[in-house]
Amino acid sequence: MKTFARLVNALDSTNKTNQKLEAIDRFLTEANAKDKLWLLALFTGKRPKRNINSTLMKQWAMEVSGIPEWLFLECYSSVGDLSETIALILPVPTHTIERPLYEWMDLIIALHDKSETEKKDFVLRAWSGLSITERFIFNKLLGGSFRLGISSKSLINALAKHYDLDANSVTHSVMGDWKMEEVTFEGLVRGNYTDTQLSKPYPFCLAYALEKEAEELGVLEDWQVEYKWDGIRGQFIKRNGEIFIWSRGEELITDQFPEIRDTLVQWAGDFVIDGEILVVKDNTVLNFSELQKRLNRKTVSKKMMEELPIGVFVYDLIEWQGEDWREKTLQYRRAKLEESLRQNPSPYIRLSEIVSVKEWEALKAVREHARAINSEGLMLKHKQSPYHTGRKKGDWWKWKIDPLTIDAVLIYAQKGSGRRSAYYTDYTFAVKNGEQLVTIAKAYSGLTDKEIQEVSRFVRQHAIEKFGPVRTVKPELVFELAFEGIGFSSRHKSGVALRFPRILRWRKDKTVAEIDDIEEVKKLIR
Predict the structure, then answer these.
(1) Burial category of 369 from C-beta neighbours within 10 Å (exposed 0-12, middle 13-18, buried 19 and up)
(2) CB–CB of 8/141 below 8 Å?
(3) Residue 429 vs residues 92, 133, 435, 498, 506: alpha-carbon distances, Å
(4) Which residues are catalytic?
(5) Strand, coil or helix: what is 504?
(6) What is d(CA 213, CA 397) in angstroms, rounded to the nearest whole number?
(7) Full-model pTM
(8) Which residues constitute the domain of residue 50?
(9) According to a count of CB atoms within 10 Å of the terminal CB, is the N or C end of the chain lower?
(10) How many Å separate Cα 390 from the centre of its chain?
(11) Is 373 in the same domain as 247?
């Protein structure tokens, strides 16, 4: 447990990806195989059912610590997490229990058939022999609500690097359907229980931002024009009757979209299709914030599928009947894709619309009105282009609409990393809500080195409070923020979240009285 506790503490103590990867690498070096298998089980949702409810744990903690309920509730209100509150209020341990993670998990699972008295005795003995961090983890494991402070992509990358394996193959194996009692850690990571080549995606073909006048691209008829959508770019793979959905972020997300999986399995033939996952309701594409509600769920309820119906706009066909089609022309690939859609009509999967106009000026007008349908702009793809690996200038361009902007005031600042570790470069901004300020976005880019130095001096001179590395600053510096989209969200006190926010310019000509009001900002949401 100590090795696992060090890992959890390290992951929770930093927001730097490299430090998280180093912590996982240390764990993989130090831990035994059974503990490493439990790491993957906990991460992929294979947790034991809760055998002790939180009410009993709370009662036992108050009894052992000798504090009244009102004081416990005050502590809970301050800490914000029940497992952590219990870990903090308990008396100091009377001894040390040296037991690996897998043994703890076996004991926790065995509680299912125990009486309440036996359960209480087990928990109290565990609490008396564990450190605060170990107690916290133990409590989380008991409650079945354990979460690791790292993304699935980062964990997969750490595993792939440590064992010198292909990351996509590790993803397919680890994120698949496996049972603890039927696998070993080494065999699981190395793909011994599944055909990892079956699900392997292709590198995505990416576009460059259009950096010249559209007319300079030549004859408009040579270009396929589509709307650019703000969803999840994905590859939809069917091979040997199995369906795999990969995000552009190299995450296997098949089970998050069961309606798409179940639709594609009915299609004839084997294929790999490139497309965009969106929430489409009443033939209207909704904001990305609505799609976020569907992400990273172990199970998707029927109610959620009805309230947030998924639609896939398919762009390209890059493999057909086992043959790699990436070197064929876009025009050829599109024709076959259209044929497949005609043969397999579906309410969930539709062709990406081709914008048909004859002149560049008319296309400019279409682009200007793209935001009205929640599109980010246009994609321009040469009809004779292959499906490139990564970015290659000349064949695919993204022609995005101008970003939205608001004026906000800096209220929190934190030092950066690397060469910027001596300066405050990570900023949190707020807008007005009546007489108060409410946070609306974080931004890390957009200022020159000289401006960063100037802001850092201001932060050092006008810091009001310290919260670890974060400084609360006097709300005086106003900045214009640019962003691609906006939607309702509970992540910020403002109730909205900005998509890809960045600093456009420092508005030294404005005071905090002139920043935007949240009610006006909300009017930007469509």
Answers:
(1) exposed
(2) no
(3) 41, 33, 16, 11, 12
(4) 228
(5) strand
(6) 12
(7) 0.65
(8) 2-143
(9) C
(10) 21
(11) yes
